[in-house]
Amino acid sequence: MSADHATPDAAGLPVLAEEITAYYERDNEDGRLRKGSGRLEFWRTQDVLRRLLPPAPAKVLDVGGGSGVHAQWLAADGYDVELLDPVPLHVERAARLPGVTAHVGDARALRLPDESADVVLLLGPLYHLPEREDRVRALGEARRVVRPGGVVVAATINRFAGLHDTLSTGLYFDPDRRPQIESAARDGRMRPTGGDKSLFTTAYFHQPADVLDEFAAAGLAPSGQYGVEGAAWLMGDVSAWLDDPGRRESVLRAVRQTESEPSLLGVSGHLLTAGGRR
């Protein structure tokens, strides 16, 4: 294993790379999904999951669930939610949410019994495991703890998300940022540059077909892929549209129409892949 991603310590607890820990200890992720254009990712993830998940009160294991942005509404919907995350600050915040149990954990070494959850969500862990071996291991752990007939849903960042995003915002034309953007587009590896010019922390950006291969390698049978934001996230007015309840519903309905169109899966910033035990 390389030193640029999370590795478990002798006790099996996660030890994140310094730059990943520092990035999430800024405590910006929770707010990112609750305001501005980030709400499109939040509402669309919620929309897809509500169609994929079994009825409450099914047991949901939210692996890498951060501060509980999704755990909060899942618990409100009546699900039995257990959240694991490698960042203690996230776990502390999530543990305050009604109906949510939270503790520190590593996606690649879940301290849970076999077949103990109806749903396993990995809505972040695969972002920060640059090595395929580790991603397959995390998916294999999800397979181990999900019950037969249960659902595993993993989120990934699409390969050209950085390129599309920075073209939309204009950051692509900053010569100090462009090498980082183009490097990630070439091999999927986002390498932080340090300082205020860094776009993100250490991460891996998938091609949609590669996620299917990793599911299969972990013993999971994919059942569907869903582009989260579609092309809407690249449109300059999307935040204003989301402010208007009527327009927001129209945007969500429009994106839903193309969410599983193979030719458009990679346009989204994020992708959800669902499956179950083979």
Helix-strand blueprint:
Blueprint: E1 7-8, E2 14-15, H1 18-24, H2 29-32, H3 38-52, E3 59-63, H4 69-76, E4 80-85, H5 88-94, E5 100-104, E6 117-122, H6 132-145, E7 146-158, H7 161-169, H8 178-187, E8 189-190, E9 203-206, H9 208-217, E10 220-227, H10 238-243, H11 245-257, E11 270-277
Parallel strand pairs: 3-4, 3-6, 4-5, 6-7, 7-9
Antiparallel strand pairs: 1-2, 7-11, 8-9, 10-11
Helix pairs in contact: 7-8
Organism: Streptomyces lutosisoli
Keywords: Methyltransferase, S-adenosyl-L-methionine, Transferase
Protein name: Class I SAM-dependent methyltransferase
Please give the alpha-carbon distance between the first and last residues.
28 Å
Mean pLDDT: 92
Could you say what the CATH topology is called?
Rossmann fold
Task: Flag low-confidence runs.
Answer: 1-6
How much β-strand is present in the residues?
Answer: 15-25%
The main β sheet shows up as:
9 strands, mixed
The number of helical elements comes to 11
Total E-strand runs: 11
CATH architecture: 3-Layer(aba) Sandwich
Radius of gyration: 18 Å
Fold and architecture overview:
The protein has 278 residues and is α/β, with parallel strands linked by helices. It has a single domain (7-277), classed as 3-Layer(aba) Sandwich (Rossmann fold), CATH 3.40.50. 37% of the residues lie in helices and 22% in strands. The radius of gyration is 18 Å and the shape is globular. 44% of the residues are buried.
